[in-house]
Amino acid sequence: MKVSEEALLRSGFSYSDLQKVKNNMENFGGTLEEIVHDLAKRFTIAKWITIVAFATLLFTSVLSTKNNTLSLAFALIVGLPLVWYLTPARLAFKAWRYKNYASKIESDR
Asked: Mind listing the pLDDT tens digit for each residue in 64-73?
C-alpha cells in the first residue's frame, strides 16, 4: 500500500492532521506509510479493548453483585477515555479508515 499526502487528504485527513503526522515523522522518524499503519493498529487495539471492557461490564452486571458492577462501571468511565486519549482517536480512526479503503481498492485491481 503506497501512502501519499494527496491520498490522505482525499480520504478525510485535514491539513492539520497531516501536519501532526509530519511532525511525528520529523521527531521520531519513519515513513508516512509506517505511521498510517501504526495509527490504524492503535485504533484496532483501542476498539477491541473497548469491546472487551463493555462485554465484561455486561457479564458482570448479569452474574455479579450491584457493587461489583458499579465499581467496574466507574473504572471504565475513568479508564476508557484515557485509552482513547492515548491512542489519538481521531487520527487513528482516519488512518484505519484509509487503510481499509486502500486495501479494498488494491483487492479490486
From this structure: 999 999 999 9
Q: Which three cell numbers stand for residue 66?
A: 450491584
Q: What is the DSSP string of the chain?
A: ----HHHHHHTT--HHHHHHHHHHHHHH---HHHHHHHHHHHHHHHHHHHHHHHHHHHHHHHHS-HHHHHHHHHHHHHHHHHHHHHTTHHHHHHHHHHHHHHHHHHHH-
First-residue to last-residue Cα distance in the chain: 13
The residue among 67 and 4 whose pLDDT is bigger is 67
For the chain, give every domain's residue range: 5-108
- pTM for the model stands at 0.86
